[in-house]
Specification:
single chain; 241 residues; alpha+beta; six-stranded antiparallel β-sheet; 16% helix
Amino acid sequence: AAAAAGGAAAPAAAAAATAPAAKKPKAGVPDADAPLGVVDPVSGMAATGRVYTAGSEIYDCMLNQLNLSTNTDKYYVAQVIENTSTNEFFCFTHWGRTGLAGQCMLDGPYEDAQDAIEIFEEKFHEKTGNTWSTKDNFKAQAGKYHLLKTDYTALASKAAAKWQYYMAAPQDGKSIGWYDYDAPASKIVEDLHDNFLANEHLGVRIVQSGDWSYRVDLQKMTQTNTSTSRERPIRRVALSS
């Protein structure tokens, strides 16, 4: 079963009593030192689920399509999520333009993890042209999404931070100085910063914010309105614990 929505999707209803006997659930057993993925909060399962991990295999990926010449920047997230209360499994996908909430789909529930894994692998192949089993030798293909590296260990141990932009001249009632991004925007730029640390080619991104789009340069630490060409310095500020 599948559900699609602009926001979180609700798990599908349980199978009818007359349905054939379900296969025995197969719970994932991660290696003791295996890093753990983070359930996408848009799934609505962050409190009840975990990214399915078997051994050292984490069924979680972040994909990206970036074309700076056309100001195009799109994301695609895919995860196998295990409901730890019910031992049911889902394949969750979330996609859209970077900076926007996008859309999502939740396939499931399944009694066997392999059913969710098969859908996950099919979607990975459809979007990238690569197979999941050969992802360590990923080959980027024109017109397809690229697989981003994720440093799960670094994400689990990093300190909290916020982002600010600099007003070089008075405008809209604001004087010269540094100003905090609002919380959602700060979270978006922090996620892009995490992507950049693990993927050096992603130093410049295109972020959609309402009717505007911005070129965020994480090397020069600037943001530029792609319509007006107005550039502002930005900075990352670590938060005290």
